[in-house]
Amino acid sequence: VVIGSWKCGTTVYYCQEVASQGICAQQLQAGGDMVPVADCSKFDGLVLGDNCPSQNGEQERGLSNFVWYNSEGIPVNKVDGDHGCEPCDNEPFSTPEPTTPVVVAETEDPF
What we know:
Layout: E1 2-8, E2 11-14, E3 33-36, E4 63-69, E5 75-80, E6 84-87
Parallel strand pairs: 2-3
Antiparallel strand pairs: 1-2, 1-4, 4-5, 5-6
């Protein structure tokens, strides 16, 4: 099993390759956004309460929980400071379809 999603503030960051079968329903109970992470290694070694790496210039927020996934991409257990380790036994939330960043072309200076 490997960690595949992390909740920082109201945002759940996830690795598309690891959380391929969805996000643990308990991780999104209070709502929030699901954001794919390009470099999941930036989250390696975080413990509860650590600041998560800022993504896209956002303010850093503390890690409130994370989820372990099995080799098939299914969420197994959520770990947080309030409940310890609890099973992800509800139907997982589907992750959005992978997206490709839009590349904006530079315009030529008319002067």
